């Protein structure tokens, strides 16, 4: 685990591997997983011959909260981490709640971000004509329902997921995915 300081002094908790590879992926995990997805991502990246960087978003894990949160500003953290690691070019990967962060990288880091991949991405919860929860499984309903009521309701769920995800493997994640869709 590495700690990088953002321009505003916040701590960013980072993990990385195989940065000497030709292709580096910056992974933005789903909500509320953060770096809990690292073990299986590292396994998949190694098998694919990719370098991998992941960091906890502001307020996740040991990463300090941002005074004024904004998804687009997370691209500044991506640039800061990549500068620290000496990575010039990357592809941004976002799964589920990490999708908007990957898109922010693509929009704000055009000179460095060679592509964006979003898996199971989310639309705006309040968009006209969009049923935000349509097709969500029980596990996602629980998290998003709690998020709508406030931080106090989300904290126990986030703690449960952190414990569960610390031992995840590609096989166990595949089995869990059935409850998401």
If you had to describe this structure to a student in words, what would you say it looks like?
This protein is an alpha/beta fold. The mean pLDDT is 86. Strand 1 (2-5) and strand 2 form a beta hairpin. Helix 2 (74-85) crosses helix 3 (99-108) and helix 4 runs antiparallel to helix 5. The chain has helices spanning 38-48, 74-85, 99-108, 138-149, 151-165, 170-177; strands at 2-5, 11-17, 24-28, 51-55, 90-95, 113-119. It has a 6-stranded mixed β-sheet. It has 6 helices and 6 strands. The protein is globular and about 40 Å long.
Q: How would you describe this structure in keywords?
A:
181 residues, alpha/beta, 6 helices
Biggest beta sheet summary: 6 strands, mixed
| Helical fraction | 25-40%
Outline, from the CA principal axes?
A: globular
* Number of beta-strand segments: 6
The residue ranges in which pLDDT falls below 50 over 5 or more consecutive positions are none
Cα gyration radius (Å) = 16 Å
| SSE string | EEEHEHEHEHHH
Question: What is the number of helical segments per DSSP (H or I, 4+ residues)?
Answer: 6
Strand order of the largest sheet: 1-2-4-3-5-6
Binned strand content = 15-25%
> Could you say which structural class the secondary elements and strand pairing correspond to?
alpha/beta
What's the pLDDT, averaged over the residues? Answer: 86
Terminal CA distance: 32 Å
Short overview:
This protein is α/β, with parallel strands linked by helices and 181 residues long. Helices cover 38% and strands 19% of the residues.
Strand and helix layout:
Blueprint: E1 2-5, E2 11-17, E3 24-28, H1 38-48, E4 51-55, H2 74-85, E5 90-95, H3 99-108, E6 113-119, H4 138-149, H5 151-165, H6 170-177
